[in-house]
Design goal:
Oligomer: single chain
Helix content: 25-40%
Distance between the termini: 57 Å
Order of helices and strands: HHEEHEEHHEHEHEHHEEHHHEEHHEHEH
Length: 445
C-alpha cells in the first residue's frame, strides 16, 4: 500500500473548507471606524490611515467551536476556519508523531491532523479588562502549542530546565495589565506562509473584538518566521497583504538569520527520526535514505526536501540559511560532508542544504522584503546551549538551537527598538524565564 494512503486529515469535512463561508463578525459601523481613527491618534505612531482605520477583514472566518474556562490561565479557546481558497490539507509525518494531542485534540474537535485553514485563538484572563491600550498576540514555535509555550511550561515535562514552572508569559503579561491572546496552529511543523495568514486572521479578530487599530506580537522560535512573513507581506498570491495593524514585534530566539542545525548535525537528526533505526521524534531528516542495521531505507515524508510527492516539514525548510562559512560543520558526525553538501555517504544519501534552501527557504525573501519601519522590532536571544535531552548547537554561541548571531540578526528590520542577549538562558527558557518575561513586558511598554 503506498504511504500516501496512510496520510489522513480527519473526517472528509476536514479536508477542505465548506463552499459557503458563514461570517461571524459584521462589518464595523461608521461610528466604530471613527472611534478607531481616534484611538489610533491617541496611541501614537499609527500606520497610514487607509490601513490603520480600515475594518479588519473577518468575513472569511467562521467560528466553529468555543471552549469556556479551559484552564491554564485562559478565559476561553476558540476554533476558527478560514475559508479562503488557497489553504490546504498539509501532509503529516507517519506514526502519529506530528498529530495534535492533549487539550489541543479536544479544541480541534478530535481531529488529529487538522486542515491548515483552521487555527485556535486563546484569550487569557483579563483579555477584556486589562489596562494596556494595545493587546498582545503570542505566536508559538515548532512542535509546540500555546498551552505549553505560554501558559504552563511544565505541561509536557520539557521546558529546558530540570524544574519547570507552571505559569508562563501569557499569565505574566496579563498580570501586568496586558490583554493577552495566543494562536494555536493546526500543523506542528507547518508551512510558515499558511501560518502567517492565520496570524493575520488572529490579529483581525482581536482588532474587531476590542475595537483597536493595532496589536503587538511576540513570536518565539519558528513562530517568528510566520509573524515576520505577515508583517513583511511575504505571502502566497492568494494571501492577505499586511494591513498595517502591528505596532511592535518582539522575537524570542527567532531564526532571523536562519539556521542550518539539521544539516550541520544531520546524523543525530536522522537517528532520532528514522523508524528503521528506532527513531520516533517529530523532527526532519536531511537525508533521503539511510542504512539501519545493514538495510537501506527511504522515508521521503521525513525529509527536509520534498521527495516522491511527500512534503511533511515545509516549515523547517523555510528556516534554512548557511552558516558553514562562519562556524563550519560538525565534522565529528557520520557522513558529515555529504549530509551538508550533498551526495552518497557511507550510511546516508541526500541532496545537501543548498538544494533545500533553493527549494523554498524564506530567510532571504524576508530579509529582502523587510519589516516596515512603522513596526518597532525587538530581538531577544539566549546564550546558553544547555537544553537537557537534545543535541545542542555547539559550533558557536547559541541558545542550544538558534545561533546567537542569527537570533540578533537585524537585516531587513526597518526600526530596531532594542536587542538583548540573555547569556544564561537556553532556547526554551526564553519563553518563560523571569528575566525574559520582564524584558518582553518592558519592550511592549
Amino acid at each position: 500500500m503506498p504511504a500516501t494512503s496512510r496520510l489522513t486529515t480527519g473526517r472528509p469535512s476536514d479536508r477542505r473548507p465548506p463552499t459557503a463561508p458563514r461570517p461571524t463578525a459584521r462589518r464595523l459601523s461608521a461610528a466604530l471606524t471613527a472611534a478607531l481613527t481616534l484611538a489610533a491618534l491617541l496611541l501614537g505612531a499609527p500606520p497610514p490611515a487607509s490601513a490603520a482605520t480600515a475594518a479588519p477583514a473577518t468575513a472569511s472566518l467562521t467560528l466553529e467551536a468555543a471552549f469556556p474556562a479551559p484552564g491554564n490561565g485562559w478565559a476561553k479557546v476558540e476554533r476558527y476556519l478560514d475559508t479562503t481558497t488557497g489553504f490546504r490539507a498539509e501532509q503529516y509525518p507517519p506514526g502519529g508523531r506530528g498529530d495534535q494531542d492533549g487539550a489541543r485534540l479536544t479544541y480541534f474537535g478530535g481531529v488529529r491532523q487538522p486542515y491548515s485553514g483552521r487555527f485556535l485563538l486563546y484569550s487569557a484572563a483579563g483579555w477584556d479588562t486589562g489596562s494596556r491600550a494595545t493587546p498582545v498576540l503570542l505566536v508559538h514555535g515548532a512542535n509546540d502549542n500555546a498551552d505549553r509555550a505560554w501558559a504552563d511550561p511544565s505541561e509536557s515535562g520539557t521546558c529546558g530546565a530540570s524544574a519547570c514552572p507552571s505559569t508562563g508569559l501569557a499569565r505574566y503579561l496579563a498580570g501586568t495589565g496586558h490583554r493577552v491572546f495566543a494562536i494555536g496552529f493546526a500543523h506542528k511543523q507547518g508551512d510558515n506562509l499558511l501560518q502567517a495568514q492565520a496570524v493575520g486572521d488572529a490579529i483581525a479578530l482581536i482588532r474587531a473584538r476590542l475595537g483597536v487599530p493595532q496589536v503587538d506580537v511576540a513570536a518565539w522560535s519558528k513562530g517568528e518566521v510566520a509573524a515576520r512573513a505577515y508583517v513583511s507581506s511575504v505571502r502566497p498570491s492568494w494571501g492577505r497583504a499586511y494591513a498595517g495593524d502591528v505596532r511592535r514585534l518582539v522575537t524570542l530566539g527567532g531564526p532571523n538569520g536562519g539556521l542550518d542545525y539539521v544539516y550541520a548535525h544531520g546524523w543525530a537528526f536522522s537517528l532520532a527520526t528514522w523508524p528503521a533505526c528506532g527513531g520516533t521524534a517529530n523532527v526532519p531528516s536531511p537525508h533521503l535514505s539511510m542504512a539501519c542495521y545493514g538495510t537501506s531505507t527511504a522515508q521521503p515524508c521525513l525529509g527536509v526536501l520534498p521527495s516522491g510527492g511527500y512534503d511533511c516539514y515545509p516549515g523547517q525548510r523555510q528556516l534554512l540559511a548557511r552558516w558553514d562559512a562562519t562556524y563550519g560543520v560538525d565534522g565529528s558526525a557520520q557522513d558529515w560532508w555529504t549530509t551538508y553538501y550533498g551526495g552518497q555517504g557511507y550510511y546516508t544519501s541526500g541532496q545537501g542544504i543548498q538544494a533545500a534552501i533553493d527549494a523554498g527557504s524564506l530567510i532571504g525573501p524576508l530579509q529582502q522584503a523587510g519589516v516596515p519601519a512603522a513596526v518597532r522590532t525587538y530581538l531577544l536571544a539566549g546564550g546558553s546551549a544547555d537544553i537537557p535531552g537534545v543535541l545542542n548547537e555547539n559550533r558557536g554561541p547559541s541558545d542550544g538551537i538558534v545561533l546567537t548571531r542569527s537570533a540578533l540578526d537585524t537585516t531587513g528590520v526597518g526600526t530596531v527598538g532594542g536587542t538583548r542577549l540573555l547569556t544564561g538562558l537556553n532556547h526554551l527558557e526564553l519563553a518563560w524565564s523571569p528575566d525574559a518575561m520582564s524584558q518582553v513586558d518592558g519592550w511592549l511598554g
